[in-house]
């Protein structure tokens, strides 16, 4: 039974997992859907009540019925490397490729439907609350007056994108920034704005979850760090990430969150306050883990490899099907 990895050619994190899989004897096929059709080819038929399909890539042929798991890492958009690319060919290729993979019994990290739904930050906040995680007071609004009222109730705020990275080529992270006192909120009318109470944090926490295995890492904020320097990704701090224990209540809530979201993988960001409370900021269903592994030596790539190569169906998903109670949007 084969592990299928969907990612672009240059992906060091995928390399780390492939290196772990190499020792297991489990066959691995790695491909980029951007190379379909061409370097990647597919064929499938629905005849006599059964589906049979296969994929070929890099001179390897794999039967879809032999797929154990699919890791959706950093796949390119189908049909973007052909001589005559078009939106139509991309849609056709996407439907054929992912539609067939959905017809298999493979376990997904993460299933595209679950991944798509999990990207919505407002939904993440809702699910975090429902899972029992502390969530800093947040508003998302296009009413300038609502923003002003919120700033009166919570005078120390940050602003960040509702949707995450800016979709330019290559995508650009938009830093979370502190809102200055006396800010004029009239521009809020031009686009949904996410305002959140700033957590006066003593550390940032990255909790990487692989199946039911949790890897928490902590990066302390220096005692004389500038409070305007909010976003850990852009901070000048040189303090490394180091491993920490996950508090049991957080672990229970995180398991509930991942189960409800039907995610096999999630990278949570928390802000730890002076009382040691971990405030939920987001759960990135495709969050990077390479930098954490390198700094902490936590065996995250190995855990991903273990999950992908484990036999049997996904324990979180009955009959290999996902069930949604809410519209993925
Ligand atoms: N309310 C907050 N209080 C303190 N720091 C925050 C807050 N929200 C975000 N940050 C910082 O900004 C970083 C990015 O914010 P995050 O919510 O993870 O959004 P995204 O990564 O989608 O831009 C966090 O990892 C954290 O360092
Ligand atoms: Mg983040």
Automatic annotation (TrEMBL):
Location of the MvdD-like pre-ATP grasp domain: 2-113
MF terms in GO: ribosomal S6-glutamic acid ligase activity
GO cellular component: cytoplasm
GO biological process, one term: SOS response
Record-linked InterPro entries: GRASP_SAV_5884, MvdD-like_ATPgrasp
One Pfam match: ATPgraspMvdD
PANTHER family: BETA-CITRYLGLUTAMATE SYNTHASE B-RELATED (PTHR21621:SF0), RIBOSOMAL PROTEIN S6 MODIFICATION PROTEIN (PTHR21621)
Record's protein name: ATP-grasp ribosomal peptide maturase
Organism this protein belongs to: Streptomyces sporangiiformans
Lineage: Bacteria, Bacillati, Actinomycetota, Actinomycetes, Kitasatosporales
Annotated gene: tgmB
